């Protein structure tokens, strides 16, 4: 049993003497782990960094084995983000969310391509990549069956002045309909509606929005909290507002 595919490195854990259990995401094989011999060695450590785009190869005697993983570098996203703390935090957060949220060996092509697009945008402009990350998390929620309904107001049915999201239903609420409940609702950043540019305050609002539903509906059912890397990203973005 074997396959070769473009992949995003999600996670790496030391294993044995110089080895590593690595986790990657591919289009057809989903989140997939394997043993990288020498994965923590000086020669391979830079390869197996979360966020890197690689050409991965997995080989196993049986389909359900851990198997052996090897790879060649395609895009060193982690190294490129090293000089930008916000970019590096965003990269690590996205990989941690994918690693923790996605079922193993279950294909999610839309999420894979969205993650690759985010990594590519991050290499060009962090300010463009942060909204992409929030949109990708919203797509991930939808892919796992917990999609947000931002098309119309849950109260009036209208499509104008959508400004909040119900933390219970995930449905949008308009500014006029929010009334006395506005302090209990989650702000809806306009970039999630495809409207206008965004600021750090908008990114923070978006991360709080998707983070609420990821924590409740995805990680909560696993009896886990949001990954630490995701929490650290929100703290860093909020501090910049």
From TrEMBL:
DNA damage as UniProt keyword: yes
Record keyword DNA repair present: yes
Keyword annotations from UniProtKB, A to Z: DNA damage, DNA recombination, DNA repair
Span of domain DNA replication/recombination mediator RecO N-terminal: 1-75
Top-level taxon in the UniProt lineage: Bacteria
UniProt GO BP: DNA recombination; double-strand break repair
A Pfam family it matches: RecO_N
Cellular component aspect of the GO annotation: bacterial nucleoid
Gene3D superfamilies the UniProt entry points to: Nucleic acid-binding proteins, Recombination protein O, C-terminal domain
Family: Belongs to the RecO family.
Task of the protein: Involved in DNA repair and RecF pathway recombination.
Name under which the protein is recorded: DNA repair protein RecO
Organism whose genome encodes this protein: Falsiroseomonas algicola
Gene: recO
């Amino acid at each position: 049993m074997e396959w070769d595919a473009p992949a995003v490195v999600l996670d790496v854990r030391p294993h044995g003497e110089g080895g590593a259990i690595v986790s990657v995401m591919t289009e057809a094989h989903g989140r997939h782990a394997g043993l990288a011999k020498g994965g923590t060695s000086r020669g391979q450590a830079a390869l197996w960094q979360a966020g890197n785009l690689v050409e991965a190869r997995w080989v196993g005697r049986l389909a359900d084995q851990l198997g052996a993983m090897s790879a060649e570098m395609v895009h060193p996203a982690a190294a490129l983000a090293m000089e930008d703390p916000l970019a590096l935090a965003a990269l690590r957060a996205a990989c941690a969310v994918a690693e923790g949220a996605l079922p193993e060996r279950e294909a999610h092509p839309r999420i894979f391509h969205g993650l690759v697009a985010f990594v590519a945008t991050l290499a060009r402009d962090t300010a463009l990549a942060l909204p992409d990350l929030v949109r990708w998390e919203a797509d991930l929620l939808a892919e796992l069956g917990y999609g947000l309904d931002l098309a119309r107001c849950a109260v009036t049915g209208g499509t104008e002045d959508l400004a909040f999201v119900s933390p219970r239903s995930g449905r949008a609420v308009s500014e006029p309909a929010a009334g006395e409940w506005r302090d209990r609702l989650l702000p809806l950043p306009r970039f999630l509606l495809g409207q206008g540019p965004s600021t750090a305050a908008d990114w923070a609002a978006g991360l709080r929005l998707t983070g609420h539903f990821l924590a409740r509906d995805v990680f909560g059912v696993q009896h886990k909290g949001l990954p630490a890397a995701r929490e650290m990203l929100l703290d860093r973005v909020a501090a910049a507002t």
